[in-house]
Each structure stands twice: as C-alpha cells, then as structure tokens.
Specification:
The complex is a heterodimer of chains A (about 120) and B (about 110).
Chain A: E1 3-6, E2 10-13, E3 18-25, E4 33-39, E5 45-52, E6 57-60, E7 69-73, E8 78-83, E9 92-99, E10 107-110, E11 114-119
Parallel strand pairs in A: 2-11
Antiparallel strand pairs in A: 1-3, 3-8, 4-5, 4-9, 5-6, 7-8, 9-10, 9-11
Chain B: E1 9-12, E2 18-23, E3 36-40, E4 47-50, E5 64-69, E6 72-77, E7 86-94, E8 99-102, E9 106-110
Parallel strand pairs in B: 1-9
Antiparallel strand pairs in B: 2-6, 3-4, 3-7, 5-6, 7-8, 7-9
The chains are: A mainly beta (about 120), B mainly beta (about 110).
C-alpha cells in the first residue's frame, strides 16, 4: 500500500528555520516525483515544486523559488521542505503528494498534511 | 489570482447534475497538457477524481466525468449526493511558468 506520512504540526516564530518531512513507503520511492502543495487558511491549493528522488532533479514554482528548499533522502525514502527564515505569511497546511510523471501529471497519493503556524 | 479560473461556488439538489468549469489559456489548458481534478472534503487532504482530462481512478463513481475543449475544461457530477459536498480543484501545467498550476477551487453545496 502506497503511503506518504508527514511530520507533525509545528509552531514557530518569525525568523526561525524549519524542515518538515514526508516519508514514502509501499512503492519505489526513487522512481516517482514527490511534490509539495501549500494551502493557506481558507484558501486554495498552490503548487510549490517537486523533486525526483532518483537523481534529485528539482523544479520550483516561480512563486516559491528562493523561498523554500525541497530535498530528498533516498536512504530513508523521505522528502523534505525547508525554510531558513519563516514569515507569518508561511502559516499554512503543507501537503506532500506523489506526482507520478512529473509536473504535468496528477497527484495520485497524498500525505495527511503538516500544519505550520508562524507567529510574529 | 489563480492562473486557472473556477467559479467560487456551485450548488445543486440531490439527484441533479452540476458542472464545474476551469478556464485557462493557450499556455496551459490550451496546450497538449492534461487537466486533472481533485475533491477536498473538509479537514482532509485532496483526492484525485479525474486524471488525464477524462479518466476516473479506481473507486471513483462513474457519476464523475471530465472533459476538455480549447482553453477550458469541465468536471461534471450527475446524480448529486450529499457526500459530494466538497471543494473541487482543477490542475494543469503552464508552459510559460514551467510549473504545475491549480485553479482557485469551487465549493460545491448540495442543497
């Protein structure tokens, strides 16, 4: 069974750093793209970027380029999303999801989401 | 403002048919790239209900169907049921942005 299990909720202050995780299991982790999607409170879905764990090929949305870093560790089948300096506007639910064929394809499996709350 | 435009809300009575539109441009839906649709129930992660414009994944009722024409796409739900009440999002790829993009989402209310 394909599963994506995300790390727990985080409460941070503006200016702090953060790295959240998404552990994949039940499939060949190296062979499928993993993406990150932001959902701000009461708002819609936003595609942030994706990574191909097999060779670490990473693509970012222009809106998020330079704001976050996406990475993956093949040895632990875990993808990561990190910030070096959080802002209050980063408060959101963050989902990881498998985007099988890359940025043009559908997200077929989703994590449960990680709620990030940033206070100023 | 989303690259793909959806109506904020639609509604219908049980048993009726509703459609949700997703309007894009020549750099996204108007290209050869597929449109995918997601259902998000309150407090849960999204789930895909249509992929590749008009394909239903296993387990999704055949009451759900998708279509694409020109720079627009649509999700149709027939035989509306209370359990269909959710937010729905379209997704495609934008060649100008070199990024996947979502529509702003549509809240479906079953009256």
């Amino acid at each position: 069974e394909v599963q994506l299990v995300q790390s727990g909720a985080e409460v941070k202050k503006s200016g702090e750093s953060l790295k959240i995780s998404c552990k994949g299991s039940g499939y060949s982790f190296n062979s499928f793209w993993i993406g990150w999607v932001r959902q701000m409170p009461g708002k819609g879905l936003e595609w942030m970027g994706i990574i191909y764990p097999g060779d670490s090929d990473t693509r970012y949305s222009p809106s998020f380029q330079g704001q976050v870093t996406i990475s993956a560790d093949k040895s632990t089948t875990t993808a990561y999303l990190q910030w070096t300096s959080l802002k209050a506007s980063d408060t959101a639910m963050y989902y990881c999801a498998r985007q099988e064929g890359g940025p043009t394809s559908t997200f077929d499996y989703w994590g449960q989401g990680t709620l990030v709350t940033v206070s100023s | 403002q989303s690259v793909l435009t959806q109506p904020p809300s639609v509604s219908g009575a049980p048993g009726q048919r509703v459609t949700i539109s997703c309007t894009g441009s020549s750099s996204n839906i108007g290209t050869s790239h597929d449109v995918h649709w997601y259902q998000q129930l309150p407090g849960t992660a999204p789930k895909y209900v249509i992929y590749g414009n008009n394909y239903r994944p296993s387990g999704v009722p055949d009451r759900f169907s998708g279509s694409k024409s020109g720079t627009s796409a649509s999700l149709a739900i027939t035989g509306l049921q209370a359990e269909d009440e959710a937010d729905y999002y379209c997704q495609s790829y934008d060649t100008s942005l070199s990024a996947s993009v979502f529509g702003g989402g549509t809240k479906l209310t079953v009256l």
